[in-house]
Amino acid sequence: MPATGPRTLRAALVAVVLLGAAAAPVRSDTQSEIADVLAAMTGALADADAGAFLKPIDRKCPAYDTLSNYIPELLRQGTVSSAIEFLKNDGDERRRSVQLDWYLEIHSEDAAGPVVRRRVVVDCVFEKQGRSWRIVSLSPVSLFAPQNYE
């Protein structure tokens, strides 16, 4: 496939997580570790990999069951791309409260189908569990609900 094929275009649509000026000062490794988790999640959406998207979300997170139902269905509906910008990043080296401006696009598999655009402020709580940052709270989950085309 040429370098300008659909997979390359899809990958180009996945935005790098932006570290906005509103982010609270933290050790750069903590901030970059959380940014890496979010970048992996946006990449998983673009790659239609529900398991990789859900991996950093703690199974005890109240939103986990809903997301584990929503994400596979959403990814079956079309190509998903997203961009995230930090609005707030508070906490310490073990727990962070993060507010994100999350933009999501769903491109229908049908060439004549719609492109659905969603933009929501998402609140996440991250906890350091061992060596990994895990999401223990995420809302609203409605951002990731499958599109109702009826």
Question: Key terms for this structure?
Answer:
alpha+beta, 150 residues, 4 helices, 4 strands, four-stranded antiparallel beta sheet, disordered N terminus
Provide an overview of this structure.
This protein has 150 residues and is α+β, with helices and mostly antiparallel strands. It is 31% helix and 34% strand. The protein has helices at 6-13, 28-46, 50-54, 64-77; strands at residues 78-91, 95-108, 115-129, 132-139. It has a four-stranded antiparallel sheet with strand order 1-2-3-4. A hairpin with a 3-residue loop joins strand 1 and strand 2 (95-108). The protein is elongated, with a radius of gyration of 15 Å.
Summarize the entry for a quick read.
This protein has 150 residues and is of the alpha+beta class. It contains four helices and four strands, in the order ααααββββ.
Layout of helices and strands:
Layout: H1 6-13, H2 28-46, H3 50-54, H4 64-77, E1 78-91, E2 95-108, E3 115-129, E4 132-139
Antiparallel strand pairs: 1-2, 2-3, 3-4
Quaternary structure annotation: single chain
Strand content: 25-35%
What strand line-up does the widest sheet have? 1-2-3-4
The Cα radius of gyration reads: 15 Å
- What does the largest sheet look like? 4 strands, antiparallel
Would you list the SSEs in sequence order as H and E?
HHHHEEEE
Outline = elongated
Count of alpha and pi helical runs: 4
Distance between the termini: 35 Å
* Fraction of residues in helix: 25-40%
Number of DSSP strand runs: 4
Average pLDDT: 85
Structural class: alpha+beta
Uncertain runs are 1-27
